[in-house]
Amino acid sequence: MEGVDYFDRFSPVVKITTIRIIMALAAAKSWFLEQLDINNAFLHGDLHEEVYMHPPPDQALFTKHSFKSFTAILVYVDDLVLTGNDSSQIQQVKHTLDVAYKIKYLGQLRYFLGLEIARSAQEIHLNQRGYALSLLQDSGTLASKPAKTPTDPSLKLHTDQGTPLSDPSTYGRLVGRLLYLTISRPDITFAVQQLSLFMTSPCSTHLHVAHRVLHYIKNSPSQRILFSSSSTLQLSAFSNSDWACCIDTRKSISGFCVFLGPSLISWKTKKQNTVSRSSSEAECRALGSLVCELQWMQYLFNDLHLPLSLLISTYCDNQSAIYLAHNHKGLVHLLPISYVNQLADVFTKSLPPKAFQNFISKLGHCDLHHPT
After folding, report:
1. Which of 160, 244, 252, 306 has minimal CB crowding within 10 Å?
2. 63 beta partners
C-alpha cells in the first residue's frame, strides 16, 4: 500500500556511454566482466490518474576501491554488470548481493540489453547483430537490396515532405527501434537523428528515408565497435557543426565523438536549441556541448579512481571558434584539424558513399585505429 509498504520507487538506469567506457577500461586494464540478474517481479497496470514526480538521482554506478583492488557495479533496472581487477573481491560482492537480493549469476558478460559482447586477448567487440536482424525481419526488409549509405546526401528532410502517413505510430515505433540501434552504430546516428525530428507528423518521404536506413543496415547487420586492450587512458575528441542546415528552423547541427586511446566511447548528433548567426557561433555551440560531455567524463574517471592526468586533445576545423573558446582552458587543448580528417563530420551531415566510407573507416567501426 502506498505510504505503508512503499514511499518512493524507481528503476536505476546506467548511462549507455558509461557502459562503453567501462568496457573500454576492462579491455585496456584486463578487468573481469561478469553479469548478474536480480530475481524480482514487475507488476504492470493501467493508471487512471495523473502522476507527478521528481526524477530520482541516477544511482546506477557503484564502486569499491582499496590499495590493490577495484570493483564496480553497473545497474540497469535488474540487470547488473560486475567488473574489477580482483576475482576474490568480485566473489565476495556476489555473495553479499545474493544474501540481500537473491541474484542469478549469468557468467561472463556476453549479452546485455540487446548488446552482444565478445572478448579476446586483443579487444572487446560490441555489436547488436541479433537486434538488427530482428528489426529487419519485423519491418519486412530482411530480403531487401542493401544500400551503401544510410541516407541520400542530395535529399534534405523537412516537414510536409510527401503525403502525411495515415498511421504515424508505425513510423514512431520504427524510429524508436533505430534510435536504440545507435548504441553501437555511430554510422547511422545522423540519419536517425534527422528522422526523429518528424515523429509527430511524419510523411511518406520520411518513411522512405527510414527504409533506406534499414537497407543500409541490411548491408552490414554485424557492424561493431571495438575496445582495444592496448588502449591508453588518454581522451581525444572531435567537434563539428553544420551551420543553418535545418530547412524548417535554420538551426545548426552539432556533432562530436570521443576516443579513449583508439577506442570510440561516445558520439552525438543534435540540433542546436537556438539559431546561430554565423558558422563560428555554431561551431562554438558544438564545442560547448562536447566540453560538457568531457567534463562529465572527467568526473566519472575520478569516481573510477582513474583521474585524467593530461589535457584532452580536442579537434575543431574552425579557427575562429578555437580563438573564441578560451574559457575551456584547464580541461581541453583545442587543436585545428583539416576537413579531410574531421571525424565528427559524419555526425553533422549526409555524405556521398566514398566520403562516408572514408569517415567510417577512420572512426574505426570495424578495425579501430586512433586518428592522427
Report:
1. 160
2. 72
